[in-house]
Specification:
This protein has about 180 residues and is an alpha+beta fold. Helix content is about 35%, strand content about 35%. The protein is globular, with a radius of gyration of 16 Å. About 30% of the residues are buried. This is N-acetyltransferase domain-containing protein.
Length: about 180
């Protein structure tokens, strides 16, 4: 990955220190303002989310040391920390104590197709104290589904969630997200 390096963030304080410096908000919006998501967030909302993720779990950032900016991000928390997703998982037979949930993941456009998501996800596996990972994406996000499948994730049949979000147009919308799980053999 040449000029790219992975760093682990484990505290909200450290995330706050890095947030603006590595242009995380800009990369986040690049990932989620475009199709298939077309969502809008403020910088404060994203900063607060990532501070919470760091305090509750782990964040892996892929940094471009040459440009001193974020190339990708992956945030995970123990599944029990996300009450709504934990309830959905338990209703589908998953032992929530055995999983961490990948809350957020994305790679900037200029860095795609370079195995960055795979590298961040594999690094995350080394940083968490459980074996299982649960992830979620839009049912129409074929690139995300394909990337997860390559890493050994499988769709949990029937396990979905309706997610409400603010669309770029300003209106509130909702769509269905599908869950995938990874459990090593």
């Amino acid at each position: 990955m040449n000029n790219l390096e992975l760093i682990t963030v484990e505290t909200g304080e450290k995330m706050a220190e890095l947030f603006a410096k590595v242009e995380l908000y800009e990369i986040y919006m690049e990932c989620f303002a475009q199709p298939p998501y077309e969502e809008v967030f403020t910088a404060d909302e994203v900063q607060q989310l990532f501070a919470q993720y760091a305090d509750k779990g782990r964040i892996i950032l892929c940094l471009d040391s040459e440009l001193d900016r974020c190339a990708g991000f992956l945030a995970a928390v123990p599944l029990v920390e996300d009450e709504e997703v934990a309830r959905i998982a338990a209703n589908h037979g998953l032992n929530v104590e055995d999983y961490w949930f990948l809350e957020e993941g994305g790679v900037g456009k200029a860095y795609r197709h370079r195995q960055i998501f795979s590298s961040m996800e594999q690094e995350m596996r080394t940083k968490i104290p459980v074996k299982g990972l649960l992830s979620r994406t839009k049912t129409i996000n074929l690139a995300s589904l394909k990337a997860h499948k390559k890493l050994g994730y499988r769709v949990v049949q029937g396990m979905t969630q309706l997610v409400k979000y603010q669309h770029l147009s300003g209106e509130m919308r909702q769509d269905e997200r599908v869950f995938m799980k990874f459990w090593p053999k």
